Amino acid sequence: MRKLPHDLAALILRVAAGLIFLPHGWSKIAGEGGASAFAADIASNYHLPTFLGHLAAWSELAGGVLLLVGLFTRLDALLLAGTMAVATFVVQLPDALYGADPHAIKFFVLMRGIELPLAMLAMTLALLLTGGGRFSLDALLGIETRVAALFCKRKAAAEAAALEHS
Protein backbone atom coordinates (compact mmCIF):
# COMPACT_ATOMS: atom_id res chain seq x y z
CA MET A 1 0.00 0.00 0.00
CA ARG A 2 1.25 3.46 -0.86
CA LYS A 3 2.07 5.96 1.81
CA LEU A 4 0.51 9.40 2.02
CA PRO A 5 3.75 11.37 1.37
CA HIS A 6 4.31 9.45 -1.89
CA ASP A 7 0.77 10.16 -3.05
CA LEU A 8 0.99 13.83 -2.09
CA ALA A 9 4.33 14.14 -3.91
CA ALA A 10 2.78 12.60 -7.05
CA LEU A 11 -0.18 14.98 -6.77
CA ILE A 12 2.08 18.03 -6.39
CA LEU A 13 4.25 16.94 -9.33
CA ARG A 14 1.24 16.25 -11.54
CA VAL A 15 -0.51 19.54 -10.79
CA ALA A 16 2.63 21.65 -11.11
CA ALA A 17 3.67 19.97 -14.37
CA GLY A 18 0.15 20.15 -15.77
CA LEU A 19 -0.15 23.85 -14.96
CA ILE A 20 3.21 24.55 -16.61
CA PHE A 21 2.54 22.48 -19.73
CA LEU A 22 -0.95 23.92 -20.36
CA PRO A 23 0.02 27.45 -21.44
CA HIS A 24 3.04 26.17 -23.37
CA GLY A 25 0.87 23.72 -25.31
CA TRP A 26 -1.86 26.32 -25.75
CA SER A 27 0.56 28.86 -27.21
CA LYS A 28 1.77 26.28 -29.73
CA ILE A 29 -1.78 25.30 -30.75
CA ALA A 30 -3.58 28.64 -30.57
CA GLY A 31 -0.68 30.91 -31.49
CA GLU A 32 -0.33 32.57 -34.87
CA GLY A 33 -0.49 29.81 -37.48
CA GLY A 34 -1.37 27.17 -34.90
CA ALA A 35 0.33 23.82 -34.50
CA SER A 36 1.22 23.74 -38.19
CA ALA A 37 3.32 26.89 -37.90
CA PHE A 38 5.06 25.55 -34.80
CA ALA A 39 5.74 22.22 -36.53
CA ALA A 40 7.06 23.95 -39.64
CA ASP A 41 9.35 26.12 -37.50
CA ILE A 42 10.72 23.05 -35.70
CA ALA A 43 11.28 21.29 -39.02
CA SER A 44 13.05 24.19 -40.73
CA ASN A 45 15.16 25.42 -37.80
CA TYR A 46 16.08 22.15 -36.10
CA HIS A 47 15.78 19.63 -38.94
CA LEU A 48 13.22 17.50 -37.11
CA PRO A 49 10.27 15.81 -38.80
CA THR A 50 7.17 18.02 -38.91
CA PHE A 51 5.05 15.40 -37.16
CA LEU A 52 7.24 15.78 -34.06
CA GLY A 53 6.27 19.44 -33.88
CA HIS A 54 2.59 18.50 -33.98
CA LEU A 55 3.18 15.75 -31.41
CA ALA A 56 4.99 18.17 -29.09
CA ALA A 57 2.31 20.84 -29.33
CA TRP A 58 -0.61 18.50 -28.74
CA SER A 59 1.15 16.43 -26.08
CA GLU A 60 1.91 19.57 -24.08
CA LEU A 61 -1.72 20.73 -24.23
CA ALA A 62 -3.53 17.41 -23.84
CA GLY A 63 -0.83 15.98 -21.59
CA GLY A 64 -1.08 19.01 -19.33
CA VAL A 65 -4.81 18.48 -18.89
CA LEU A 66 -4.41 14.74 -18.35
CA LEU A 67 -1.65 15.28 -15.78
CA LEU A 68 -3.86 17.69 -13.86
CA VAL A 69 -6.53 15.03 -13.39
CA GLY A 70 -4.11 12.11 -13.25
CA LEU A 71 -5.43 10.14 -16.20
CA PHE A 72 -2.98 7.91 -18.12
CA THR A 73 -0.24 9.54 -16.06
CA ARG A 74 2.61 7.23 -17.03
CA LEU A 75 1.79 7.43 -20.75
CA ASP A 76 1.47 11.23 -20.54
CA ALA A 77 4.75 11.42 -18.65
CA LEU A 78 6.48 9.26 -21.26
CA LEU A 79 5.31 11.43 -24.18
CA LEU A 80 6.11 14.63 -22.34
CA ALA A 81 9.53 13.37 -21.23
CA GLY A 82 10.35 12.67 -24.87
CA THR A 83 9.17 16.14 -25.81
CA MET A 84 11.25 17.71 -23.04
CA ALA A 85 14.35 15.68 -23.95
CA VAL A 86 14.17 17.06 -27.48
CA ALA A 87 13.39 20.56 -26.20
CA THR A 88 16.33 20.42 -23.79
CA PHE A 89 19.07 18.84 -25.86
CA VAL A 90 18.12 19.50 -29.49
CA VAL A 91 16.43 22.91 -29.31
CA GLN A 92 17.46 24.84 -26.20
CA LEU A 93 21.02 23.62 -25.71
CA PRO A 94 22.35 24.80 -29.11
CA ASP A 95 20.31 28.01 -28.83
CA ALA A 96 21.85 28.72 -25.41
CA LEU A 97 25.35 28.64 -26.85
CA TYR A 98 24.54 30.72 -29.93
CA GLY A 99 25.69 34.27 -29.40
CA ALA A 100 26.89 33.65 -25.84
CA ASP A 101 29.50 35.99 -24.40
CA PRO A 102 32.87 34.30 -25.06
CA HIS A 103 34.06 35.29 -21.59
CA ALA A 104 31.04 33.82 -19.81
CA ILE A 105 31.23 30.57 -17.89
CA LYS A 106 29.71 28.11 -20.38
CA PHE A 107 28.11 25.90 -17.73
CA PHE A 108 26.02 28.77 -16.38
CA VAL A 109 25.10 29.94 -19.87
CA LEU A 110 23.94 26.41 -20.74
CA MET A 111 22.00 25.90 -17.53
CA ARG A 112 20.27 29.26 -17.92
CA GLY A 113 19.26 28.24 -21.43
CA ILE A 114 17.91 24.80 -20.57
CA GLU A 115 16.60 25.25 -17.01
CA LEU A 116 12.86 25.02 -17.74
CA PRO A 117 12.85 22.08 -20.18
CA LEU A 118 15.40 20.26 -18.00
CA ALA A 119 13.23 20.75 -14.90
CA MET A 120 10.17 19.57 -16.83
CA LEU A 121 12.10 16.55 -18.08
CA ALA A 122 12.98 15.68 -14.49
CA MET A 123 9.36 16.11 -13.36
CA THR A 124 7.99 13.93 -16.14
CA LEU A 125 10.60 11.21 -15.51
CA ALA A 126 9.65 11.24 -11.82
CA LEU A 127 5.97 10.84 -12.77
CA LEU A 128 6.87 8.05 -15.17
CA LEU A 129 8.44 6.21 -12.23
CA THR A 130 5.85 7.03 -9.57
CA GLY A 131 2.62 7.08 -11.53
CA GLY A 132 -0.28 9.35 -10.67
CA GLY A 133 -0.66 8.32 -7.05
CA ARG A 134 -3.76 7.65 -5.01
CA PHE A 135 -5.27 11.08 -5.74
CA SER A 136 -5.63 10.53 -9.49
CA LEU A 137 -8.19 9.24 -11.96
CA ASP A 138 -5.74 6.42 -12.69
CA ALA A 139 -6.22 5.19 -9.11
CA LEU A 140 -9.95 5.87 -9.05
CA LEU A 141 -10.51 3.91 -12.27
CA GLY A 142 -7.96 1.21 -11.42
CA ILE A 143 -5.91 1.87 -14.56
CA GLU A 144 -2.53 1.16 -12.94
CA THR A 145 -3.85 -2.10 -11.49
CA ARG A 146 -5.25 -3.21 -14.85
CA VAL A 147 -2.05 -2.43 -16.72
CA ALA A 148 0.04 -4.22 -14.09
CA ALA A 149 -2.24 -7.25 -14.27
CA LEU A 150 -1.97 -7.31 -18.05
CA PHE A 151 1.82 -7.27 -17.90
CA CYS A 152 1.85 -9.95 -15.19
CA LYS A 153 -0.35 -12.23 -17.33
CA ARG A 154 1.93 -11.77 -20.34
CA LYS A 155 5.02 -12.41 -18.25
CA ALA A 156 3.49 -15.57 -16.74
CA ALA A 157 2.49 -16.81 -20.21
CA ALA A 158 6.00 -16.19 -21.53
CA GLU A 159 7.54 -18.00 -18.58
CA ALA A 160 5.18 -20.95 -19.05
CA ALA A 161 6.03 -21.13 -22.75
CA ALA A 162 9.74 -21.04 -21.94
CA LEU A 163 9.32 -23.91 -19.46
CA GLU A 164 7.44 -25.98 -22.06
CA HIS A 165 10.26 -25.64 -24.58
CA SER A 166 13.06 -26.43 -22.14
Short structural description:
By secondary structure, the chain is an all-alpha fold. The chain has one domain.
Which properties best describe this structure?
single chain, 166 residues, mainly alpha
Main β sheet profile: none
Number of helices: 7
Based on secondary structure, the structural category is mainly alpha
Strand content: under 5%
Average residue-wise pLDDT: 89
State the shape: globular
Tell me the total number of β-strands.
Answer: 0
Secondary-structure element order, as H and E? HHHHHHH
Classify the helix fraction into a percent range.
over 70%
Unreliable stretches:
none
Radius of gyration: 19 Å
Structure notes:
The chain is an all-alpha fold. The protein has one domain. It has seven helices and no strands.
Would you spell out the secondary-structure blueprint of this structure?
Elements: H1 4-30, H2 34-46, H3 50-69, H4 73-97, H5 106-130, H6 137-141, H7 143-165
Helix pairs in contact: 1-2, 1-3, 1-5, 2-3, 3-4, 4-5
